[in-house]
Amino acid sequence: MIFSNTLIYWYLQNNRELPWRKTKNPYFIWLSEIMLQQTRVAQGLSYYQKFTTDFPTVFNLANADESTVLKMWQGLGYYSRARNLHFSAKQIANELNGEFPSTYKEIIKLKGIGDYTASAIASICFNEPTAVLDGNVYRVLSRYYGIDTPINSSAGIKEFKTLAQSLIDETQPGTYNQAIMDFGALHCKPQNPLCETCPFSDSCVAFEKKLTKELPVKEKKIKVRKRYFNFLVIKTDNDTTILSERKGKGIWQGLYQFPLIESNKVINKDELILSEEFINLFPLETTISLFNPKEIVHKLSHQHLYTQFWIVETANSAETTIKWSEIEKYPVPILIANFLEAFQAEK
């Protein structure tokens, strides 16, 4: 009880002024929690404000086209979050008459919602004492109690969940959960934690044993895969190009891209034009130039994309149906959005 009281006292003096802190509406809390997964508050704030303005209710979000949702999400990454958000919005609107589930057990059934998000919504909106576990919470608990069980192991997840649940203040679970997350984000930071002014410094194992840099422990990451992307940026005489929607379950599902040739290494122009995919796509004469002299390395969680953008000027074609003047309407990966910004600036 001393731990939770100290934490809540710290929070009441130091909590951040954030728009979703001023509401108990589960729709808004849900939006904020999904957006802040894998995203810093400073980056997610403007997206939250845009979404709540354009989609003030779950019905507004449910009725939007997926392409519109993905376009608004552009830049946040991890696009499966947006697709799951849209899918669940339609489920809530159409099957639950717009009523958000009110218990952890029901909330976690929604697509794209795991233990952390369900716990956050249930505690903040419905006062259910379900403890959250995110990176901030793992860090605070592992340091304070000196726990070196890897936080990304099945044993670690179980151990920390049990501990977190035992510490939650059942009279104000939402406040407690927000307190421990804010404490990890602002005070018990990954690098350079504020140990000298910490309210737990007299009882923190990591501080006493000088283990703050070692804790929490994570098992080694999955090996990163290297991929080599060659985007063919087509420009025709009548200023049209090709964009196509990515299908399947891989990265960027539902987003649009230029024709792509994937190679097994970084290739030059001669190797590109001799590839079967290029010959099939461009039977007529073309003029080709490389836009970025050095490949762009775009890092995703388990893969690094070594990317070249090739400008291909060619005659008009029935395949080139997208006007350059309308290209900004299409949701694209941030990698392509950054290219378009640089390319348009040079035109």
Brief summary:
The chain has 347 residues and is α+β, with helices and mostly antiparallel strands.
Describe this structure in words.
The protein has 2 domains: 2-208, Endonuclease III, domain 1 (Orthogonal Bundle); 225-346, Nucleoside Triphosphate Pyrophosphohydrolase (Alpha-Beta Complex). Helix 2 (26-35) packs across helix 3, helix 2 (26-35) packs antiparallel against helix 8 and helix 8 crosses helix 11. With 347 residues, the chain is α+β, with helices and mostly antiparallel strands. It is built from 15 helices and 9 strands. The model has no long low-confidence stretch (mean pLDDT 93). The N and C termini lie far apart (63 Å). Strands 1, 5, 6, 7 and 8 form a 5-stranded mixed sheet that branches. A two-stranded antiparallel sheet has the order 2-9. A two-stranded antiparallel ribbon has the order 3-4.
Provide the descriptors you would attach to this structure in a database record.
347 residues, 5-stranded mixed sheet, alpha+beta, two-stranded antiparallel sheet, single chain, Nucleoside Triphosphate Pyrophosphohydrolase, Endonuclease III, domain 1
Mean pLDDT: 93
Largest sheet: 5 strands, mixed
* Highest-level CATH class of the largest domain: Mainly Alpha
H/I helix tally: 15
- Could you tell me the radius of gyration in angstroms? 24 Å
Query: Which CATH architecture of the largest domain is right?
Result: Orthogonal Bundle
The CATH superfamily of the largest domain is identified as Hypothetical protein, domain 2
**Euclidean distance between termini CA atoms:** 63 Å
Q: What structural class do you assign from the helix and strand content?
A: alpha+beta
Proportion in helices: 40-55%
Overall body shape? globular
Please name the CATH topology of the largest domain.
Answer: Endonuclease III, domain 1
| Strand and helix order | HHHHHHHHHHHHEEEEEHHEEEEH
**Proportion of β residues?**
5-15%
- Runs in which pLDDT lies below 50 for 5 or more consecutive residues are none
Q: In the residues, how many domains can be counted?
A: 2
Structure summary, number of beta strands: 9
